[in-house]
Write a structure and sequence with these properties.
The complex is a heterodimer of chains A (110) and B (114). Chain A is mostly beta strands and 110 residues long. Chain A contains no helices and ten strands. In chain A, strands 1, 3, 4, 8, 9 and 10 form a six-stranded mixed sheet that branches. In chain B, the strands form two sheets. In chain B, strands 2, 4, 5, 6, 9, 10 and 11 form a seven-stranded mixed sheet that branches. In chain B, strands 1-3-8-7 form a four-stranded antiparallel sheet, with no helix packed on it.
Chain lengths: 110, 114
């Protein structure tokens, strides 16, 4: 998982396997969460979001799970593809401002 | 992709010189943001704008100023650049306030201050 201030965690998965990327957020009052994907030399790209009144939300090949009890967010990517290789980070919204995690680097092995 | 253009994409300059980065959007979105991205840190908010001529500070605003004279343009100025401002700078936009929808990012400006 990712935490602010630590070396960037890495995750390697085989092509076709499922990936799970974790994020521990800091503020129990945060009410809106986003996962971003960032490829080398590019800006962050929106993947999926979830509000605090939900536990789970699904998109195309991605699922976000929110556990407010332990302040934990996860991103599941189904059937991981080489194009999924990137840095993934979460963002939490508190008081009308987003706070971003440092990210997890995902490498997909062909 | 959201219509966001950052310029320049790369810049190398010397300590003490003024630097201005530009963010241009074609989405007519109300909110615009400047972030910096550094190793070991998540994106950190420098300044943001909630309308023409309406701006406010973020968590790392010291040494930076901004201006927004038109909906589509948001400028970030380093009045006297320091080496600690070497970073990758990202502009983001959103049509609504952060608690309601995601921000969409440009591809960044890599700034090196020697």
């Amino acid at each position: 998982g990712e935490s602010v201030g630590l070396h960037l965690p890495t995750l390697s998965v085989q092509e076709g396997d499922n990936s799970i990327i974790n994020c521990a957020y800091s503020n129990s009052a945060s009410d809106y969460f986003i996962w971003y994907k960032q490829e080398s030399g590019k800006g962050p790209q929106f993947i999926i979001d979830i509000r605090s009144n939900m536990d789970k939300r699904q998109g195309q090949r991605v699922t976000v799970l929110l556990n407010k009890t332990v302040k934990h967010l996860s991103l599941q990517i189904a059937a991981t593809q080489p194009g999924d290789s990137a840095v993934y980070f979460c963002a939490e919204n508190t008081g009308n401002q987003f706070y971003f995690g440092t990210g997890t680097s995902l490498t997909v092995i062909p | 992709d959201a219509g966001i253009t950052q310029s320049p994409r790369h810049k190398v300059t010397e300590t003490g010189t003024p630097v201005t980065l530009r963010c241009h959007q074609t989405e007519n979105h109300r909110y615009m943001y400047w972030y910096r991205q550094d190793p070991g840190h998540g994106l950190r908010l420098i300044h943001y704008s909630y309308g023409v001529k309406d701006t406010d500070k973020g968590e790392v605003s010291d040494g930076y100023s901004v201006s927004r004279s038109k909906t589509e343009d948001f400028l970030l100025t380093l009045e006297s650049a320091t080496s600690s401002q070497t970073s990758v700078y990202f502009c983001a936009i959103s049509d609504n306030q952060p608690s309601n929808q995601p921000q969409h990012f440009g591809d960044g400006t890599r700034l090196s201050i020697l």
